[in-house]
Structures are given as structure tokens and as C-alpha cells.
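Section 5: illustrative case.
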């Protein structure tokens, strides 16, 4: 009886140790065959199978952890995860380099180093995206920041990702300058070339066959008339060039934004009244769709109204049939951003100019100035938003303003 009880107690202790090993993910534990020779082979096989499965799971978990840790550490995107209390759960090397810090255990530590970024992280909801500038020791670095949230078991985490976009911005800036220089060169040549040609023509009127300057007695009424016409054309072209320069000034020197909170419905219905004659003239049906109807927007109302006036006029010009439709929509997307849209059933935007429509002074209209869309883009940037478009040639065009 003593030996039997001793054997049972040993067996119970071994089983208890086995399950304790399972709890701690220790796959190295095994029953000793010499101590328990009477356990059936089937039970031994099951125990070995469970042990092997645990070992495989533990090994796979360690491999995955090592893989993701290496991936995160070598990513070119800065990553920070925070607990609800603000404790830094994870921060990779790229984030430390971008923020120019050695280590950080709580997000509160950023308040003195990067107060603007700290305010964004603390007060921005999930889905927030923005371009900001991080000041370093020698220069300021433009970065794109995105904030999202996720849950791990019962804990809630905030994920902040940073991306250094300095190279991309420099490339875009150079590309924009090249496009702008091409447009400027084209416009200036269009003005200066006819003036030069006309000046040469007028000069010839005042020379005789011997290429000598004629006397005042030789100046006929015809020469005076041609001179007057030529000077009038030169004056017109000069005024056109001055207007071009003033348009450029309007784009490059926007006034400071004056933000206020207003109802989108007031904006849209005021536009309907303001442009009613335009709609009636071209037999255009305007539809307004706002969800919810009391949706509010915080922006510079005058500038946003000007943007929509330009967009609506563009839509009116693009509609060439007798059943024109323009739709104004407003709603909040899944990231809680206010979205304003304008769509029409006009001729659409040709594919070969889709990458040029936001370039200052570029226009496909005969008498267009080419500043409407570039001005709209500048205004949306000053609002911290964006303007994009979708267009199908010969069918429809939609412009989307995101705040």
C-alpha cells in the first residue's frame, strides 16, 4: 500500500509539473519512462504529441517575434505604439532618429522636445493624417504622420507612424518648378513674340527703299493709321502680360485664413442662389445632398465659397448637352473627415492634361486664366486639407475636397 501510494503521489506530482510546464510554455518537460513504466504507450504517445505541438508553437512564435522585430527595426517608417496611459510600448530606430532622441518611455517626454507633435498625438483621433515639420539640430525635416488605434485582448493602443518625405517633396518641388517655368515661358513668348514682330513691322514703315529713315513730310495718313493700330495691339498685349503677372501674385500671396464654423447647407444653398442665372442659362439641374443636413465645417468661408464658384463655373462650361446635371454633396467619411464633392455630367477632363490641371496658368479654355484650380489647391493646403478629382472623358467629372 505504501509503495502504491508513493507511486500515485509521484505520478500526480509529475502530472502537475507537466501542466505547470504547459502554462509556462516549457516544451522541454517529459514523463520519465523509467519512473512510470506502467503508463500505456497510447498515453505516452499523446503526451509526446502535446509536447511536440507546444514546442512547435513556441518555436514558431519566437521566429515570428524575431521576424517582426527585425522588420519593424529596419523599416524606413517611424513607428510608436502607446498604451491608453501614454506609456510607450514600442518605438523603432527610425522613429528615434526622426525625433532626434535616444529613448523614451512615456509620450509626455515629447512635450518639451516637440510640443507641436505632442499636442497632435494627444488630441488627434484615429485616422488623423497630416504633413508636419520636425525641427532637428541642423535642419527641419518634413514628415507625414498618421494616427490609428487597435486593440490587443482587452487593452487599447494608439499607433503613430512617421514617414520622412523630404526627398519626395524635393522631387515634387523640382517637377513643379519645371512645369511652372514651361508655362511661364510659353505665356511670355506668346506675348513678347508678336510685340517684337509688330515693332519690326512698324520700324519698316518709317524707312524708305534705301533703308534710311523717312522725313516727317513723307509720313502719310496710312503710316499714321498703321502706327496707331500697332501701338494699340502692343498696349493690349502689354496689359495681358500685366494681368498674367497679377494672377501669379494672387496665387502666391493668399491672405491669412479666417476660420469659422458654419453649416455646409448655408454654403451650398447660397451658391445655388448666387449662380441661379448661370444654371437657368444652360438649363442645368442642380442637386444638393447633405448628410446630415446640419453638417458643419470649420474653414474660411469666403475662400471655400470662391473655390466652389470656380468649380461650378468649370462644370457649367464642361456641360455641352441640354440635360446638364451638377451635384453638390457633403458628408463625413469613415475617418470622421468632412468631405465636400461637386460632380457633373460634362465632357470630362482629357487624359493627356490630368497631370497639369493644378499647374498655375495652365488652361484648356480659349479665354481662361488658368488660376482657378491652382488657387483652389493652394486654399485647401492652407486648410490642412486636399482637393482631388476623378474624371471619365465624355461622361463625368468629380472634384473631392477633404477637410
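Designed sequence:
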Amino acid at each position: 500500500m505504501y509503495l502504491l501510494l508513493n507511486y500515485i503521489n509521484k505520478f500526480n506530482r509529475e502530472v502537475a509539473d507537466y501542466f505547470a510546464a504547459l502554462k509556462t510554455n516549457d516544451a522541454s518537460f517529459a514523463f520519465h519512462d523509467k519512473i512510470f513504466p506502467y503508463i500505456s504507450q497510447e498515453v505516452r504517445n499523446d503526451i509526446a504529441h502535446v509536447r511536440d505541438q507546444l514546442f512547435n508553437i513556441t518555436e514558431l512564435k519566437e521566429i515570428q517575434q524575431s521576424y517582426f522585430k527585425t522588420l519593424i527595426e529596419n523599416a524606413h517608417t517611424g513607428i510608436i505604439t502607446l498604451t491608453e496611459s501614454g506609456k510607450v510600448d514600442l518605438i523603432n530606430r527610425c522613429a528615434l532618429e526622426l525625433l532626434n532622441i535616444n529613448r523614451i518611455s512615456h509620450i509626455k517626454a515629447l512635450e518639451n522636445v516637440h510640443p507641436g507633435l505632442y499636442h497632435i498625438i494627444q488630441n488627434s483621433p484615429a485616422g488623423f493624417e497630416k504633413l508636419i515639420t520636425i525641427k532637428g539640430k541642423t535642419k527641419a525635416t518634413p514628415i507625414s504622420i498618421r494616427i490609428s488605434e487597435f486593440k490587443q485582448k482587452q487593452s487599447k493602443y494608439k499607433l503613430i507612424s512617421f514617414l520622412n518625405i523630404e526627398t519626395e517633396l524635393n522631387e515634387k518641388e523640382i517637377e513643379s518648378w519645371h512645369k511652372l517655368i514651361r508655362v511661364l515661358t510659353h505665356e511670355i513668348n506668346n506675348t513678347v513674340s508678336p510685340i517684337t514682330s509688330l515693332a519690326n513691322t512698324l520700324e519698316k514703315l518709317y524707312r524708305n527703299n534705301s533703308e534710311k529713315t523717312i522725313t516727317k513730310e513723307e509720313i502719310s495718313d496710312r503710316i499714321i493709321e498703321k502706327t496707331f493700330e500697332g501701338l494699340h495691339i502692343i498696349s493690349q498685349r502689354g496689359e495681358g502680360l500685366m494681368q498674367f503677372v497679377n494672377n501669379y501674385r494672387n496665387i502666391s500671396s493668399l491672405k491669412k485664413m479666417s476660420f469659422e464654423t458654419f453649416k455646409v447647407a448655408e454654403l451650398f444653398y447660397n451658391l445655388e442662389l448666387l449662380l441661379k442665372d448661370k444654371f437657368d442659362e444652360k438649363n442645368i439641374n442642380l442637386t444638393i445632398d447633405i448628410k446630415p443636413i446640419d453638417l458643419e465645417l470649420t474653414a474660411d468661408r469666403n475662400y471655400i465659397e470662391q473655390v466652389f464658384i470656380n468649380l461650378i463655373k468649370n462644370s457649367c462650361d464642361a456641360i455641352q448637352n441640354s440635360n446638364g446635371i451638377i451635384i453638390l454633396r457633403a458628408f463625413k467619411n469613415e475617418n470622421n473627415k468632412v468631405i465636400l464633392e461637386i460632380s457633373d455630367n460634362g465632357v470630362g477632363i482629357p487624359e493627356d492634361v490630368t497631370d497639369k490641371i493644378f499647374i498655375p496658368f495652365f488652361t484648356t479654355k480659349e479665354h481662361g486664366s488658368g488660376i482657378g484650380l491652382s488657387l483652389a489647391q493652394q486654399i485647401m493646403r492652407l486648410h490642412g486639407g486636399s482637393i482631388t478629382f476623378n474624371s471619365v472623358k465624355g461622361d463625368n467629372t468629380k472634384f473631392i475636397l477633404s477637410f
